[in-house]
Prior knowledge:
By secondary structure, the chain is an alpha+beta fold.
Amino acid sequence: MTTVCVTTTGLYQWIRKLDSFTLLTPASVRSLSAEARSGDNVQAALGRADWSDEDLLLHLHHGASHNFEALVQHRKVEDLTIVILTNRKNGNLHEIADSLRRMVYATQA
Length: 109
């Protein structure tokens, strides 16, 4: 059995390399981030990606297992990456990431 240990550094490097297209081509990232829907369930192999023509604007990936939860969000245009790992699954990591983003830009004003 293989053990996978996710770290904030690993998720940061993973999404930045994906989004700079050093691991996969832009076409592959677009294809693997295409959403598949089944009722209210939406899945995508590489998570959600928002595009403007050929430019990747936002890439986020959320996952949970047992009581653990992780979110990585890269806003490429803003050059902002947020990585959150928790062992208290509350389903609120998107809200926490949005709050962190607002705090970053409030301190830059």
